[in-house]
Glycosyltransferase 2-like domain-containing protein
Amino acid sequence: MISVIIPTYKRKDKLRQTLESVLNQSIKDYEVIVVEDGSNDGTKEMVTELRDTHKNLSYFYQTNKGPAAARNQGISKAKGEIIAFTDDDCVVPRDWLERLLAGFKKHPEVVGVGGKLEASEDELKKNVYARYEKYMSLKAYGTGEKEVIGGFDCPAGGTNNLAYKKKVLVEVGGFDETFPVAAGEDADIKKRITDKGYKILYLPLKVEHHQDYYFGGFLKQSYNRGIGSYHFQKKWSQPPTKLEIYKQMLLLAIKSKFNLLVKPQKFFVLLDFIFQWQEYRGMLKHVS
């Protein structure tokens, strides 16, 4: 059996879309676990209604502790030997679980299998921020169209489209609940797993991201990513000082000015500069 864990917080309508896709998989032997992270927007009632017709759906509630704690609670309740994760603003394809399981079967040496996250084709056509997200996924993570097996450098690893063997999640102690924001905890568990020598498989398997694509939303995400990045570096290495971050910001400005002159995708270069600048601002907030 495979278990699917979905942490959720104040996204009842988007979660319904997620559940409609997750509960309509091509395989039969799986369970779906929703962990509500302290919201009170009617999520419980919506999930309870769906449970009337989907007996493989379970619901649990916790006071607001963040998605890492919600995933850990889901892991503790899960019956499956493999645990898949997605988010409450995602829509998975009908063969999502089938293809994740096929990845484990084809490559028995791996302990994790994951894919990529992109907006729907319609959203990509009409929204520049959706196209920017796709551009950055390819640039930062190498989410191409070929299978890749690797360690920490493997493109797979985001908990919006990923499955791990449960025994490995238990072995490393689950997700680190001390991350101050919902950013960095998926990279952290990936590092702890791959540092033990385990391998992960990336598949060109797309999960649709149904977030609200707008400038302000990306600013907030980038700021939080900076906070998560600083926490990650503080845990695993020597975190940067304020002076080092300011130097990185200066180098970013110089590099971006040059790229604006030579790169064809100038608007993406400009967005890249703005959002990376925001990440540095998030890091600065937590420098001790």
Summary: The domain at 2-209 is CATH 3.90.550.10 (Spore Coat Polysaccharide Biosynthesis Protein SpsA; Chain A). The longest strand covers residues 199-209.
